[in-house]
Write a structure and sequence with these properties.
Number of strands: 10
CATH topology: Dihydrofolate Reductase, subunit A
CATH superfamily: Dihydrofolate Reductase, subunit A
Strand order of the largest sheet: 5-4-3-6-1-7-10-9
CATH class: Alpha Beta
């Protein structure tokens, strides 16, 4: 089965955009591993607001298919590689896409999407590009999580710019409680 990977830029204080929706603080002076990342994905799951940011040039993302999760957007008939997914279709579409042959799936954003995927235990990997900036306020990466999520650090890389990439997997939850042996 394919993996869903969250790959996102985040400020050191946990925001994915500034107080006015800006993301001009994101470092873009080098590749930061995106070429390698793109070689392992062929699909994007994205929310409507994030899609609005990239919709003018989806060709810059080398993927076969983009699924936009939105109840307000209509199907993008001008682009056969873009499919709009309504909230009532969420489980059905995600399950179908994950079972299809292909590479991994990039969960692009936004924050509501991240929470929905986290709450349904659908993410396998979190690749956080932690930028060396404190925004003070803005849109937090993680809101409305229903449960505690334990992570295991798989890898990390630092760059001369101060950007730190941390790759985590979700630690499986134990289904049964361990007896108290003390």
């Amino acid at each position: 089965m394919r993996k869903i990977i969250l790959n996102v830029a985040v400020s050191l204080d946990g925001f994915i955009e500034g107080p006015n929706g800006e993301y001009d603080w994101c470092l873009a002076d080098q590749d930061y591993g995106m070429k390698d990342f793109f070689s392992n994905i062929d699909t994007i799951f994205i929310g409507r607001k994030s899609y609005d940011l990239i919709s003018s040039d989806t060709s810059m993302y080398p993927v076969k298919k983009i699924y936009v999760f939105s109840d307000t957007l209509t199907n993008q008939e001008h682009n056969p590689n873009v499919e709009v997914v309504k909230s009532a279709q969420f489980d059905e579409v995600v399950d179908r896409v994950m079972k299809e042959p292909g590479k991994n799936i990039w969960l692009f954003g936004g924050a509501e999407m991240v929470s929905a995927f986290m709450n349904k235990n659908l993410l396998s990997t979190l690749l956080l590009s932690i930028h060396p900036i404190l925004l003070g306020e803005g849109k937090a990466l993680f809101n409305d999580l229903k449960d505690r999520v334990d992570l295991v650090l798989l890898d990390h890389k630092s760059y001369s710019t101060g950007l730190l990439q941390a790759t985590y997997t979700i630690k499986p939850k134990l289904d049964m409680e361990m007896p108290n042996l003390l």
